[in-house]
Amino acid sequence: MPTLSLNILVLPTYNNMLLGVADASTYVTPPVNPTIEITVPSFGTVVLSFTPNTYNLFNSESLGITASGADLVPLPDGIYTLKYSIDPAITNYVEKTFLRVDQLQERFDEAFMRLDMMECDKAIKTQSKVDLNTIYFFINGAIAAANNCAIDTANKLYNQASIMLNNFVRNNCGCSGNNYVINFY
């Protein structure tokens, strides 16, 4: 006989306007009043209905970021907390914290796609790869830190990746070649 085991998964939507949460729980009986409490960075907490045994999607309207009927906006990057409960009167719940990086990742992808690796000489092309790999390393480090409840470290790594990405784009993709020539040649 199955036992109650609550679990939710944050799954990629590949859309910066959507947050996808799947129910991976096992139930003894169907839930009565399942809810999910979502804390959105800089916007507070909302409590929403949650459909068990399926994939639930949330957008800026459902999360209280935009008014009903207004144009949807991208969801902010940052630390999100999700608390799934099958009945508010029961203390059995599951809580997850994660770092959303969709907007930063979108900027990274745009910078990467703007590079024409065939135009630069070898040192410059290699420097651009080093810079992009470093930025990507910081993004993944921020995600790993958040997954391990190191929120301050996650925020620092996220901010560093954002600053580096801004500098990379501002400096015309960092095509100086100096770092590669000095440190890697």
Question: Which descriptors would you attach to this protein?
Answer:
7 strands, 2 domains, three-stranded antiparallel sheet, Immunoglobulin-like, disordered C terminus, 185 residues, single chain, 4 helices, alpha+beta
Rg, nearest Å: 21 Å
**Total strand segments:** 7
Terminal residue distance: 63 Å
Shape: elongated
**Computed structural class:** alpha+beta
Question: Biggest sheet: strands, sense, closure?
Answer: 4 strands, antiparallel
State the CATH class of the largest domain: Mainly Beta
**CATH architect. name of the largest domain:** Sandwich
Order of helices and strands: EEEEEEEHHHH
- Describe the oligomeric state of these chains in a short phrase: single chain
The mean pLDDT is: 88
Number of helices: 4
- Number of folding domains? 2
The name CATH uses for the topology of the largest domain is Immunoglobulin-like
Strand content: 15-25%
